[in-house]
Structures are given as C-alpha cells and as structure tokens.
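Example 3.2
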Amino acid sequence: MKHLTKRLIGQRVMSEPITGKETTAELFEKSFGAYVGREVRNAYEIIKKMIQKDHTIVLAMSGAMTPIDFAVSCIIPMIKAGYVDIITTTGANLYHDIQRLESDNWYEVNPNQGDIRLRKAGWTRVYDTAFPDDDLWIVDHLVTDLVRRPDFNRSMTTTQFHYLLGKQLARFGRRRFKRADLNRSLLVQAYRNSIPIFCGAPQDGSIFLNLAFLKRKLGHRYKFSIDLEEDIHEFGAYHYYAKSKWSKKLSVIILGGGVPKNYSLQPEPYLTQVCDIEASGYDMDVQICDAHVQNGGLSSCTAGEGHTWGKTSEDCVKNSQYVFADVTATFPFIVHALLQEGIERESRHLLDYRNEAIAFLDKALRKKTLKSYYRKGKENYNNDK
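Structure, written as tokens:
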C-alpha cells in the first residue's frame, strides 16, 4: 500500500510564510503549491529544463501582445538571454511592433467608458489600451514604402520577409524614428539575432491589407509574394535539423493559442505523415492559455492529444504543463525567475543555418523517396511475377 501511495502522490503541500526577501523562483517553491499556482510553478520548472538541457525552443505568441509592449517586457529579454530559437506569431503583433516604433502614443483606458465616445475622439481600443487612429495611416504608409524596396521584389517565405522588415527598420530606423529605441522592436531584435519569425496566416493582418492594395496599385511591377509551400518546408527543415543536431531535443512555449500554436505544431505531421521522415515531435511543452479543452479546439489541445497526431513525443506527454490563465498575469513571473536565477545560453542564430537545414531535409527526402520508389517497384515486380 505504501509503495502504491508513493506512485500516486507528489510532494507534500506545505507553504512557508512570505518574507519579501525571496527570489521569484523561491516564491514559486514556497507558495505556489496548488491550483493554477502549481501550474505556473511547473511551467517554470519545465522551461528551465528546456534551457538547461539545450533544447531548440520554439516560442508561439498569439493575441494582441505588442500593443501592450509585452515583447519589450518579456520576449526581447528572452531573445537576449538565448531562450528563443524560433518565433511563430500573428501579423497583427508584427504590425503593432512597427507601429510602436513610429509612435509612443499608447495609453491605458477604461474598457467600460464607451467605445462610441472613443471613436468620435479619434481613438482605437485594444481592451484597456488605446492609441490615436491616425497612427494606423502612418504605419500603413511605412509598410508600403518598405515593401517597394528592391529587396522585397521577389517570392519568399514569411521568415525571409520578416528578416527583411527587421533589416530595413534597423537600417533606416535611426533616421526615420527620431524618438524610437530600436532595442524595443521585436522585428529588429529577431533580425539582429538571426531568429526566424513565422506567421501561419500572414494575410490576416494589416501588413498584408496594405500589400493587397500595393499589388493592385503597382500591377505587373509588383513581384513580391509569399511562398506558402516553401514556408512549410522551411519550418519542417528547422524541426528536422534541430532533432538531428545539437542536443537533438525540441520544445515549444505557447503563449495563447490560435494559429501561432497550430502552425508551430504543423512541421511534425508534415515530416512524419506526409514526407514519411520520423522526427518524433516536441519533447517538452508549456502553454499558457484560457481556452477549454472540451470544445475540441486546437487552442486548448493537450500535449497528449497532440501525441496522437505525432506532434509531440512520449517524453512531451510527461513533460508538459497547460497553465489555465492569462499570459500577461503569469508569464512575466516566469521570465523574471529565469533571469533572476542567471539562466542563460548562447543564441543559435538559426536563420544563419536556413540553407543548410533545408538542404539537410531535402537530402533525407530524396533518400526516402528513392527507398519508397524501389520498395514499391519491388512489390509490383513480385506481384506481377
């Protein structure tokens, strides 16, 4: 009975009085003993393992995070500490990242004071944050100005597109943005650290609303396009490269849900189901989201459910934590604890390995195709015989 009990239960739930002298990690251990608090503590411990065991880490970020400057408070410090190797996010987050370089007119508002009054006063609201709607016109003009430059006049993946945006913003930012600090831009920091930024639905955002207009305006002179098939293949190449090189481990941190989460999980079925190349999926998983799993939505899909699709490994089912909470109320504590503990590592600069990773997957794909071809040929020969 005692042996069975030890297998069924975890550590004793017993808190210590808070003194105010604790580090954040110590506070997790002393006072986050149950409920969502325990989920937050477990999430911190798993992310800490990801970093210490040198996993390649994908960060998926949905929602309206850059409007509240979440990239500055949490994501950019993680980039600088070497915690992030790949980012998947929304076009909206990147559009507002550019907007924040153009304008610092972002203010807190009462979300219940009346949207009709705000609209008449010329303000656009994101829940309890608002900015002058004239800022949108300024950013629209900047986007169309940047994409008309020669570097963009070709087909590319979303990572190449975002790299060029970061490059252009870094190059011309000092002259154009008189008051802006380029260190506060997610696009610029990703460019400087060679971090691929994927966007699973680029057309669902204001950047591409402007590009749709630009295509009609320029006609045949408009050569820019996103190669969706190559985008998928590139993401699969990074996953396969990560699972074959370095520590051969791959993890994902998911902030929110939606398309960024789904697209971050798609390389695994692409590799294993479609390409017939075994990659085994993510090895550790942390998600912070407030979606309920019972409705069958991807936003709330557990690592175990993902395992049935081949998106996560058996290890991930055991090293996974879904934190049922708001990202903005919990994740800053995790980032603070990691940085306070002095946990850092060298950045992989994965975008510098783009061509190598793609060639590595292409080579495996050619071998797999030839083997399948010869196997099927032999089977057909035997059947005819």
